[in-house]
C-alpha cells in the first residue's frame, strides 16, 4: 500500500475537514486500532498521516509558522 506525499496530505486534509480540532484524536484512534491488529503497513501510512495533520494544524492560514 505505497502512498505518495500528495495522498498523505489529502488524507490529512480530509481528517481536518471532517473532525476539525479533534482530527489528531481520530487519527490516534485509527493508529491504536491498527496497532492492536498488527497491521504494520497501514500503521505506517496512518503515522505519516498523523505527522501531516500535525503540520497542517500548526500552520496558520497566512503560511507563517508560530
The secondary-structure class comes to mainly alpha
Strand % is: under 5%
Whole-number mean pLDDT: 90
Profile the largest sheet.
none
In whole angstroms, the N-to-C terminal distance is 34 Å
Order of helices and strands: HHH
Radius of gyration: 12 Å
Low-confidence stretches: none
Number of DSSP helical runs: 3
- Structural domains: how many: 1
Portion of residues within helices: over 70%
Kindly state the number of beta strands. 0
Shape: globular
Task: Briefly summarize what is shown.
This protein has 66 residues and is an all-alpha fold. Helices cover 73% and strands 0% of the residues.
How would you describe this structure to a colleague?
By secondary structure, the protein is mainly alpha-helical. It has one domain (5-57). Helix content is 73%, strand content 0%.
List its salient traits:
mainly alpha, 66 residues, 73% helix, single chain, 3 helices
Note the topology.
Elements: H1 5-19, H2 23-36, H3 40-58
Helix pairs in contact: 1-2, 1-3, 2-3
Amino acid at each position: 500500500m505505497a502512498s505518495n506525499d500528495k495522498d498523505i496530505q489529502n488524507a490529512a486534509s480530509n481528517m481536518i475537514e471532517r473532525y476539525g480540532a479533534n482530527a489528531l484524536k481520530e487519527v490516534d484512534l485509527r493508529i491504536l486500532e491498527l496497532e492492536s491488529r498488527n497491521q504494520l503497513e497501514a500503521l505506517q501510512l496512518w503515522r505519516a498521516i498523523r505527522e501531516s495533520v500535525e503540520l497542517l494544524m500548526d500552520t496558520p492560514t497566512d503560511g507563517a509558522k508560530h
